[in-house]
Each structure stands twice: as structure tokens, then as C-alpha cells.
Amino acid sequence: MSLFINDQCINCDVCEPECPNNAISMGPQIYVIDPDLCTECVGHYDTPQCMEVCPVDCILSNPDHAESPETLKQKFLRLTGQC
Q: According to CATH, what is the number of the domain 3-79?
């Protein structure tokens, strides 16, 4: 499942550069995660790097975009041109 950033975000700017898929960008008020680009770092890292660095724990699993580990792996392969 892709991730999302809730309204607890303090715009600290640490998550955006950690995303290997460039899925994080500044929204109208807080950072947002593009579910079409988020793989929860599958294929890159063992854990989502944005969640690792977030000082306020405002990055959560997005129940509106449920994806299996295999689906996330396939998305990673598509995004990196490996399929």
C-alpha cells in the first residue's frame, strides 16, 4: 500500500530528498505522496525511508491505496524500467 502524509506534517523538508522514486512533493499546505510513484521503498530499501526520517511520525499507510508486496515490487520494476 502506498503511503500518505497527514496534517501533522511540519514541513521540515527531510522526507522529500529521501524518496528514491521522487513520490514526495510539496502540496498546497504540506508535503504529499503520489500513490502512483510510492513503492514504500520496495526494491530500494528494506523500510520506507521517509518514515525513518520523519521527526513527527506523520507518514502512514494509505488505506485508499492498498497494494500487496508483489504489486509494490512490480511498480518498482516498472518505474525503474526493469520490466
A: 3.30.70.20
pTM: 0.92
CA distance 75 to 11: 27
Residue range 24-49, pLDDT digits in tens:
999 999 999 999 999 999 999 999 99
Would you state the cell numbers that stand for residue 71, as one nine-digit string?
504489486
Cell numbers for 82, please give them.
526493469
The torsion defined by the Cα of 52, 57, 58 and 59, in degrees rounded to 10, comes to 30
Reported as a single tens digit per residue, the pLDDT across 55-68 is 999 999 999 989 99
Listed by start position, the domains of the chain span 3-79
Buried b (16+ CB within 10 A) or exposed e, 3-38: bbbeeebeeeeebbebbebebbeeeeeebebebebb
